[in-house]
């Protein structure tokens, strides 16, 4: 029986389940069902199912297009019509029937035809709207769906060229936020609605989890601005947001990039701490000169920052997200020096921090120990920046530093 031709009201849940299992050759139930009928701009009778089962790595990496069957007036044209849905929606199972499609449509024409392109665009728009509606209807169920299927949405944003389509798909993304309790997700649309008047940027920070995000030097540096920051935990979030670039005429900016941009604008942040708590300007200048010499080609520049409180230092790189992705993909830079050549990092130091003040004393009294301490501060900053994929080579130096400190006591 051609369920898709019936009125949605006349179809029971058990019929959908049976039909889904038949067309998907599956044993689970559908978690979402969209029964979509329209006569304009095209005649469409369709049913789409999202499987209950989480997609496997095989499903995600599958190069094939959709698993949706294409019919015209109940006559099967193609069992797996790869071109009637964009590739990122290949997790859907279902049927599309359109009277507008000629029965003699060849496989070549299926790929080329303007009619199929039109059909694909209409279905993509309707499916995005369906998922947005579901997220409002039952946010908890949608959050689970996004956790399981979010990788496909990220792929859509990265692979589709048209900015308006990217932004449409981006409405489906969900992230935690610095303004909301842990576990609560928000959309880019919601973030935009909470923005202060005159704000033009959506800020985000990529980290493996909330604890690391909240204790990141970059998040600490943003606190002075009192801005909401989205926390992105998935490996591909960074790449996705780099490709998206903007949303609803607002620029997507990683907090690390924002810090660098502020330097170029020479934005000043007040240091409200008493002068006695930090190094004097002369001490800071001397220390930075010594550090430049001691770190050599591992840094491009060293400067003082007033945006840190609990961290001694942080690394800033123009376009940090792109740099991280590049290092991950290329595996080019094996040594610290090679990495620094690519990244051109700046080390920003907090002259109120006990470690930096101690480093200033040690550089004259115990230069060897000062060098070990500086190496560790630099490495820690590189790890916090996500620019050191393998911290294991550090262990020997860290042991040496600990031994030296214990010998002193």
Write up this protein.
The protein is built from 17 helices and 13 strands. By secondary structure, it is an alpha/beta fold. The strands form three sheets. The chain has a five-stranded mixed sheet. It has a five-stranded mixed sheet with strand order 6-8-7-10-9. The protein has a three-stranded mixed sheet with strand order 11-13-12, sandwiched between helices.
Q: How many β-strand runs?
A: 13
CATH topology of the largest domain: Ribosomal Protein S5, domain 2
Based on CA atoms alone, the radius of gyration comes out at: 27 Å
The total tally of domains equals 3
Arrangement of strands in the largest sheet: 1-2-5-3-4
Q: Quickly count the helices.
A: 17
Amount of beta strand: 15-25%
The N- and C-terminal alpha carbons lie at a distance of: 84 Å
Sequence-ordered SSE layout with sheet pairings:
Elements: H1 13-24, E1 30-38, E2 44-51, H2 57-61, E3 67-72, E4 75-78, E5 93-97, H3 107-112, H4 114-137, H5 139-159, H6 163-170, E6 176-177, H7 188-194, E7 201-206, H8 210-214, H9 217-223, E8 229-232, H10 237-244, E9 246-247, E10 250-254, H11 255-264, H12 281-295, E11 301-304, E12 313-316, H13 320-330, H14 336-343, E13 346-349, H15 354-365, H16 367-384, H17 394-408
Parallel strand pairs: 3-5, 7-8, 7-10, 11-13
Antiparallel strand pairs: 1-2, 2-5, 3-4, 6-8, 9-10, 12-13
Helix pairs in contact: 4-5, 5-6, 5-10, 15-16, 16-17
